[in-house]
Amino acid sequence: MFAIVEEKIDVGAMIEVASRPDCGAVSTFVGTTRVDESGENSVEYLEPSRRAGTR
Fold first, then answer.
1. What pLDDT is recorded for position 51?
2. Fewest 10 Å CB contacts: which of 18, 19, 35, 52?
3. Tens digit of pLDDT for each residue in 3-49?
4. pTM (2 d.p.)
5. Which one, of 16, 25, 18, 24, lies nearest residue 1 by Cα?
6. Do the beta carbons of residue 25 and residue 19 sit within 8 Å?
7. SS (H, E, C) the chain
């Protein structure tokens, strides 16, 4: 399920729609951005680290 919207997203409503007794967990992530010292929005790419012994 996905949606592209312009209005504020009701996370609780989305969890309710995705939750079913015959399915497993619903996992959500809510991220925000912050304004840096220059007053500009910025994005940094952080390469995921790899745990020893995993592929």
1. 66
2. 52
3. 778 898 888 888 888 888 888 888 888 877 777 777 776 677 777 76
4. 0.43
5. 18
6. no
7. CCCCCCCCCCHHHHHHHHCCCCCCCCCCCCCCCCECCCCCECCCCCCCCCCCCCC
At position 1, the amino acid (one-letter code) is: M
Reported for 11-14, long-range contacts at CB under 8 A and 24+ positions apart, including other chains, are: none
Q: Which amino acid, one-letter code, is at 2?
A: F
Residues 6+ apart with CB under 8 A from 48: none
Q: Is 53 left (phi over 0), alpha (psi -120 to 50) or beta?
A: left
Nearest to 43 by CA among 26, 31, 55: 31
